[in-house]
Amino acid sequence: MDKEGGLFFKRCLCCAILSSLVMFAAGCAHTKSKQTVLPKENPESSPAISMVSAGFGKITGVLIDNETKEPLPGAVVAILGTKLNAIIDLDGEYSIAGVPADTYTVQAKMAGYETQNILRVSAIKDSITPVNFGLKPIGVEKIKKQNIYLYPTKKETLTVQLHPIGSIGKSIPEYITGHTVIPVFKGKKFIPENKKGWNVIIASGGRINDTYDCLFCEATLFFNFILDAGWVLQSSDFDRKMNEILLNIGLNDKERADFMDYWPKRMDWKKKYCVAYYLKREEMDKAAPLTISKKPESLLRLFFKFVPTDTLVTVPEPMIEKFQRNGFTVVEWGGILD
Predict the structure, then answer these.
(1) Would you say the C-alpha torsion 285, 291, 294, 300 has a positive or negative sign?
(2) Which secondary structure element, helix H or strand E, spans residue 122, and what is its range?
(3) What Cα–Cα distance (Å) separates residue 318 from each residue in 165, 193, 280?
């Protein structure tokens, strides 16, 4: 290539390079311009921001016994439809913070009391909504002379526990509430145990701790029993008819004798009649569950509620299959006098 041709080639190459650089710069400028004009995210439509804008409120209040007006520590207040709840303190107060602004049903619950719902409670942003409760006690029943007879097939060491919706009062032998330490020797080693209930040694014939024929206690229950079947009794035939009822249900001579030694003396015959309502087994299992460290093969839980009346009422007699004793047998009876 001559000198003049080489010069021409260099000029063309320089022009091409310059043109490319201009196009690249223009492209960069266009890209930068596009980035700066992208619309920003709308704060009102942002999920995180909308939660903040919705805001939170607080629901607080007190919870008391509707009759005594005393606080009920341990009761639970919950906002239905959420996981928010609070436990009533010793002063009967509660507070639930962080409640999203909305309208709710607030519920209060405690064992032994009717559940209470308060509807259309509004949680308002940055505000406190007062919601107070007065819970009504469920019917209070006093079980008298609750006897538990245990008949293992061989000598047994057992723990017997009652779990009443309420409390256990007088007991023989003493019912351990969970605060007493029981000394237990395993081999030569002393191991303290804290077993709630009756911890007893029972002979095959049913003798307890070489002293007692049965376990005994009295209990207070917060439970509404359904009274829809029983027997209408009068003073003149109470002993005969009651003994016949117990025999037909399946109590043995000792159990019937103990029952009849206690109840006739405590009946109030100021009224002409007394209805001995039969308390259903499934209701007793809810009101005062009974657990034994060794499961019995046969279990009878027999309870009555005696209701005096001047009116001769018509009550259907319950259909009760006679109790059959097989293997390790447990018999329990008791009564409530209205």
Answers:
(1) negative
(2) strand 116-123
(3) 25, 43, 9
pLDDT number for residue 268: 81
What kind and span of H or E run contains 191? strand 189-193
Phi, psi dihedrals of residue 33, rounded to the nearest 5°: -65, -40
Name the residue ranges covered by the structural domains of the chain: 52-135, 140-337
CB 219 within 8 A of CB 168: yes
Residue type for position 132: N
Distance CA 28, CA 171 (A): 93
Report which of residues 36 and 228 the model is more confident about.
Answer: 228
Mean pLDDT score of the chain: 84
Distance CA 26, CA 34 (A): 12
- Give the C-alpha separation, 9 to 226, whole Å: 112
Q: What is the pTM of this model?
A: 0.61
Residue 46's pLDDT band (cuts 50, 70, 90): very low
Element (H, E) at 239: helix 238-249
Q: Does residue 38 carry a pLDDT above 50?
A: no
Instruction: Give per-residue pLDDT as tens, 251-270.
Output: 999 999 999 999 999 988 99
At the fourth CATH level, the homologous superfamily of domain 52-135 is Carboxypeptidase-like, regulatory domain (2.60.40.1120)
User: How does strand 329-337 pair with strand 298-309?
Assistant: parallel
Tell me the C-alpha distance between 144 and 171, whole Å.
Answer: 11
